[in-house]
Amino acid sequence: MMSDHEDDALVAGYLRRLTVAASALPADRRTELIEEITAHVAEARAAGAIAQGGSPNVVGILEQLGDPAQIVQAAAEFSLGEPGELGPPASVRNAVRLMYLGAGVSLIKVIVDLATENTTRSAALRALKAGVIKSGVDATASQLNSGITATLTLAFVLGLISVGLWILVARASRSGKDWARVTGLVLFGLETLALLIGPPDVGIRGPEAAVARIFAGLIWLIGLATVMFLWRKDSRVFLKRSAGPPKGFTTA
Question: What confidence score (pLDDT) does residue 26 get?
Fold first, then answer.
């Protein structure tokens, strides 16, 4: 049985080989990989010591991890998530965080829309009356109010649906579903069209209260950042390889 000093030397040598092999990785991915492997070895040694009542089998732990070059090859396309598992790269994790943030901000906007409904309704009614007078179209106040009510109700419903879509795409992205990347891009495109070209009585150009329009712009910026992260090269590789991790990297 090896001494603790000999075990430490084996681990240090393994980590040196891993560091050398990982030199071609981006700095953040390299640091993350080394930290994950170091943590995994430490946890495995601690668990082995408890189970065996003495020194753990460090040689077996390192053999089970595999050759450092194979680990780096796997990490070139994937980053490590939970110890012993392959998870999404940093770009996908960042996108997922942004999507949950987008869901939260979207929900807040729905609440803001409800709180400022009277302000929005009054502004929309003034705009519609001016339009009716200018165009010469006959429309009663009741008809105008009904149209505004329908528009606001639709906006509230779409806001709640938006919250669900943010969460749905976030979970799918975290799980490595490639359709999430395309879906996110399509939804961002629709959001952009809604804000810029219509409908004219809602969104960032509409009569909503200033705070509601600020939230609309913030949601758009979150969507832009999310799409940029999802369409990075490492994100595309991860999402296209959702069937499973590459061979050659196994942990206990």
Answer: 76
